[in-house]
Automatic annotation (TrEMBL):
The keyword Nucleotide-binding does not apply. This is GDP-mannose 4,6-dehydratase. Its cofactor is NADP(+). Keywords: Lyase. InterPro entries: GDP_Man_deHydtase, NAD(P)-bd_dom, NAD(P)-bd_dom_sf. GO terms for molecular function: GDP-mannose 4,6-dehydratase activity. Its EC number is 4.2.1.47. It is an enzyme of class 4 (lyase). Residues 6-308 form the NAD(P)-binding domain. It comes from Sphingomonas citri. Belongs to the NAD(P)-dependent epimerase/dehydratase family. GDP-mannose 4,6-dehydratase subfamily.
Amino acid sequence: MPRTALIFGIAGQDGSYLAELLLGEGYRVVGTSRDPSSARARLGASGCGAAELTDVDLHSTAAIAALVDRFCPDEIYNFAAFSTGSGMHDRPVEIAEINGVLVARVLDAIRGAPTRFCQASSSEMFGIARTSPQDEHTTFTPRSPYGAAKLLAHQLIGMARQRDRTFACSAILFNHESERRPAAFVTRKITRAAAAIAVGATDELVLGDLEARRDWSHAADIVRAMALMLRADQPDDYVVASGETHSVAELCEIAFAHVGLDWNRHVRVDPALRRSPDGAQLMGDARRARTRLGWAPRIGFQTMIKNMVDADLLALRAGIQEGKMA
Ligand SMILES: C[C@H]1O[C@H](OP(=O)(O)OP(=O)(O)OC[C@H]2O[C@@H](n3cnc4c(=O)[nH]c(N)nc43)[C@H](O)[C@@H]2O)[C@@H](O)[C@@H](O)C1=O
């Protein structure tokens, strides 16, 4: 019998990379998506056509329990979340419900069962951290409903591990990107603009802050760490990060240079797009994942950004040939 994995949020960037990985290892992969009508096409386009889609009301404890009963998954991964960088303060009620309370429902559904659970937690739980780098012992000081809801889920996982002996892990994920990243996030915003300027479709990119720094990894590396967590002897929490930071300006430089452009000539800063400043620099110390899981990132920052620009160029040129762009 193949192992079964249930993925909440299968059609997003992370869910699709994980589905690809697990399908390649012979798993039966079942997933839910908030937009089932486009999920099938998106999964097909990312090589996950063999994944099965199912429908569930994430607000219903009974529906989550029934879903788990129906598929008896060996592993559950949760990526279902509201997540757009600039929208971390918007819709706090829905964010609390989906990014936080949903995990209580899943933990309820697997209490006493052998099912293993991994949650996509976030470095946003560190928020205005006082120390850098952050690891599994760093104090959490979230600064948005997004970070607070993720922290609720993270803490429920620790309690389920202690009280109920549930095999549940919290993967504290720092920023992670790829060509499947939506353009609301700064990496894809920049790579798409570099490609668009290179083909003459536009001339300018407007950003909020060039000095902001983040610890960026590739999404495929991040989800591999999550799969390894569920294969460990014991459940635990793990920071997953590259351990290096880059500025938005550096990102621009790499992306624009890759298409032979000088970013200084095309990038403009609009302070209206700027977010409130970070506390200490957000940078992850992933030593626990490296030593206990044998995890290490395989795709570096430069390669990731160049690959994203290449993918955006391909998509734009295809669009131009089909007459989709002006
Ligand atoms: C770990 C965490 O990672 C992600 O959240 P994020 O860090 O907010 O992602 P982002 O790509 O929107 O911002 C990255 C940095 O770039 C700065 N920045 C400058 N200028 C613009 C700008 O014009 N647009 C955007 N979007 N960002 C800008 C911005 O201020 C920030 O410092 C999500 O996956 C989230 O779900 C998550 O958990």
